[in-house]
Amino acid sequence: MTEQDDLRPDLTDVLDAVLDGVIVLSPIGEVTWLNEEACQILETSLAAGLGQPLDQLMGPNSPFPALVAGVQQTGRPIVDDEVPLQRPFGPIRVVAVSISPLTVGRGARPAGAVMVLRDRTAFADLQDEAAQRDRLVSYGQIAAGIAHEVKNPLGGIRGAAELLERKVKDTQGQKSAQLIVREVDRISGLVDELMVFARGEALDRARVNLHRLLDEVVELLEAEPLAQNIQFKRVYDPSIPKILADPNRLKQVFLNLAQNAIQAMEENGGTLTLTTGMALENRLKSESGQPHPTVIICFEDEGPGISPAIQHQLSTPFFTTKANGTGLGLAVSRHWISRHGGLLRIDASHESGGRVRVKLPLASAGKASRGGTEPLGRGDGG
Fold this sequence. Notes:
By secondary structure, the protein is α+β, with helices and mostly antiparallel strands. It has helices at about 5, 10-15, 35-40, 45-50, 55-60, 65-75, 120-165, 170-200, 210-220, 245-265, 330-340, 365-370, and strands at about 20-25, 30-35, 80-85, 95-105, 110-120, 205-210, 230-235, 245, 270-285, 290-300, 345, 355-360. Helix content is about 40%, strand content about 25%. The chain has a 5-stranded antiparallel beta sheet, with helices on both faces. A 5-stranded mixed beta sheet has the order 7-9-10-12-11. The longest helix has about 45 residues, at about 120-165.
């Protein structure tokens, strides 16, 4: 054997170097090989995956076995077909799947199939994010258009109701006038909230200690009767630096997300876990095009979880699952996180309840702290 032969990679090395997931299947649909990227996408290991029937590897109700069977029966490959991939834990992934029949010998004897998976979740998320931003801009334009026409008459109605309350003598008439005032204020408040999407208000940025901000949110919620049966667990990464952000807007977002989690556990109580951490986020690119250092703030509850059927509707203005909700809280929260250059993710499938993740870029952390990006610690001042 020559030195050149020693340097020649074997098939395993070649497959593991491929950036897409590659799965080789036997004629009866058992996994005979999968590369490292396939293991990553499927959240499994080579040892656990080898020999498994495809339907067991991909999970119940998976469309992949039927796709493979169709390719084997017809001999026609599938190319870049986008398919949802549900794993036991974590959110649904979107993968582009290509499947080709595998044949051996001169007679092209069927020998199974080769499946290639490309994780397109990040691309799908970006499309969703762009579509969501476009929708919010449209809502804002509508709100701006009707605000003048609605709020002026509302002011007149409110004034007339207050005058009526002072003039009527009977208790029922006064109660009716007070009801009119309350409803006018409620409608006016809804218009003001919608105007958030149209005004493009500047962020009042400052050096923000995220842990202190979260602690303030917990202190506020602990005093509420709704949180009497709720335990608060804080798992903070002390290495996170202060960031340049609008503390009031972030506090508004964190308070809304925490209140939603508490309301999800209202019936049986439970634990609300607030976690912070650092990561490199491919979807938040720096000016050089490299993944951004990112801080992740996670809100996890022990409620019934979030149905995949309504996951993408939750940030739509006026969509709500609550009897007394306005349906604007999550839409406004997503708007403010987007204004910070971040992402808000609602996980439809989580092992024990609901989970919402806020991702904020640390691009401005150095500018925010002239003396460097010192870590927060647990009780660092703001």
